Amino acid sequence: MGVRNLYKYMEKHENIIFNSLNSTEEKDWTYLAQYHKAQIEFMQHERLIHLMVTLAFAMFCITSYIITFFMTTLPLLLLDVVLTVMLIFYIIHYYRLENRVQKWYGLYNKICEKML
To answer: How far is it between the farthest Cα atoms of the chain?
Structure first.
């Protein structure tokens, strides 16, 4: 799943949950809670994978910086720049993913309140 598709998927799911929470219709809150919890679990897995990739890129960056410190060449400097830019994008993506999942925890709590 591409990054844009992931964000669209998450936004679509949030809209379903928000519409259900704000609806005056009678809902099967137990089913909605189970459905939402399954979606949270999917995103937790996605988040874990992206954390591992982000940490790997951070290690590549640090290794590249150390090698460049001792052997400064243009190709190594270019590698440092490329890895740094990629790491920045991975960190931004992970940050957005993490915040969205944290938001979903709050939505899950609201669904559970409706079940009481």
So the answer is: 68
Q: What are phi and psi of 89, to 5 degrees?
A: -65, -40
In degrees rounded to 5, what are phi and psi of residue 72? -75, 115
What are the residue ranges in the chain where pLDDT is below 70? 1
Say if residue 98 is exposed, middle or buried (CB neighbours under 10 Å; 0-12, 13-18, 19+): middle
In this prediction, residue 27 carries a pLDDT of 85
Which DSSP symbol is given to 86? Answer: H
**Cα 63 from chain centre:** 25
What's the rounded Cα separation, in Å, for the pair 46 and 17?
20
Query: Which positions ≥6 away from 5 have C-beta within 8 Å?
Result: none
Q: From residue 6, give the alpha-carbon distance in Å to each of 12, 13, 45, 56.
A: 10, 11, 13, 21
pTM to 2 decimal places: 0.82
Number of H helices, E strands in the chain: 3, 0
Residue 87 CB neighbours (<10 A): 19
